[in-house]
UniProtKB/TrEMBL annotation:
Organism of provenance: Nocardioides iriomotensis
Positions of the GFO/IDH/MocA-like oxidoreductase domain: 134-259
Domain Gfo/Idh/MocA-like oxidoreductase N-terminal: 3-117
Protein name: Gfo/Idh/MocA family oxidoreductase
Top-rank taxon: Bacteria
Organism taxonomic ancestry: Bacteria, Bacillati, Actinomycetota, Actinomycetes, Propionibacteriales
InterPro entries for the chain: Gfo/Idh/MocA-like_OxRdtase_N (IPR000683), Gfo/Idh/MocA_oxidoreduct (IPR051317), GFO_IDH_MocA-like_dom (IPR055170), NAD(P)-bd_dom_sf (IPR036291)
GO molecular function: nucleotide binding
Amino acid sequence: MTLNIGVLGLGSVFAGPYSSLITKLAHEGRVRLVAGYDPDAGKRQAAVDRFGMDTAFETPAELVAREDLDIVLVLTSMNEHGALAKAALEAGKHVLVEKPMATSADEAVELQRLAATSPGHLVCAPHVVLSPTYRRMHEKVRTGEIGDLYLGRARYGWSGPWWGKWFYEQGGGALFDLGVYNLTSLCGFFGSVRRVTAMMGVAIPKREAEGEVVSVDAEDNAHIVLDFGAGRFASIATGFTIQKYRSPAVELYGSTGTLQLLGDDWAPEGFEQWSNDRGSWELFGETDPHWPWTDGLRHLVECIENGTETVTRPEHALHALEVMLAAKRSAAEGRVVEVTSTFPDLVYAPTAADGGAAARAKHDPRSE
Ligand SMILES: NC(=O)c1ccc[n+]([C@@H]2O[C@H](COP(=O)([O-])OP(=O)(O)OC[C@H]3O[C@@H](n4cnc5c(N)ncnc54)[C@H](O)[C@@H]3O)[C@@H](O)[C@H]2O)c1
């Protein structure tokens, strides 16, 4: 089976990381890049020149209506994600949507509902929980190797993008763009957040983007504290305000040990473990230094091929969005904000009880 891919948004992540993974999967005979849409005529032409794909669409709706497409990738600016992913799910496609899955709670709830009732899988970035390093750390946490998990700390940031004004407009900002990685990672370890409190603001009010000086309307600097209940907390520092760092990306403190993820959670370099029993640090090197942060696409293809459920769940992405919206409210109103959504724990070896037929029947429109 070769799966046909259509892409909405032919910007930098398409031209770089996603297209290189697509090329690899295409060499393996598993996918074919057939169609793309972007309102920018120059990007459409570049996609035709490089990949020979069909870009003759007037609207995203025309692309998702194309019957021969199996998978739609939503790689646009963030404010577009919700509506485009909805249209693709409604058309019966499997969908991968970049982060965040939507910029409003209503859109995200609708996506989760559609993912449960429509034939297609919905895979939401970031795909951090799929990395070999994350999986090994998760197993250590769940099997009690560091005891009860009490405290966490994570950070991710850089000096900020220059190629899109939308990063600095409402619906953009450092938390949606960067902090979402740490949040997805921490929730995967701790479970659902109950309450959040945050300091967020605009540290650099003018920036250069798309060759112009723009006003920054979305927070570019944030510090967030998460309450997971039972006295368990974690914090995230994120911003378009960071030049360099040499600290672990994610630190987990348990009753008998510590885990520290090295590198970034979207580009891990292994991890270190402290055990009270051993009385020493142990280094676990990266087992796949070439793991790509676009791995959700490989995972989606594999789930379609095998008729299995996805490890990454839309509920996890919806929860992350609710926490981020709560953090924005907390910062704006100067108070602690409750979070009500929950998501199921990660299950890394999902198998359909009947050998995959049930999952295929739900998820492959062609079997209906
Ligand atoms: N750039 C990164 O390093 C990076 C990394 C990981 C994830 N992401 C995520 O990937 C997404 C895209 O980021 P990017 O850096 O490629 O941005 P970009 O600005 O380079 O590209 C986005 C593209 O979407 C197009 N677009 C806007 N509205 C559209 C619509 N309705 N239909 C089709 N296309 C539309 C724009 O014209 C633009 O070409 C964002 O959600 C971002 O958060 C980016």
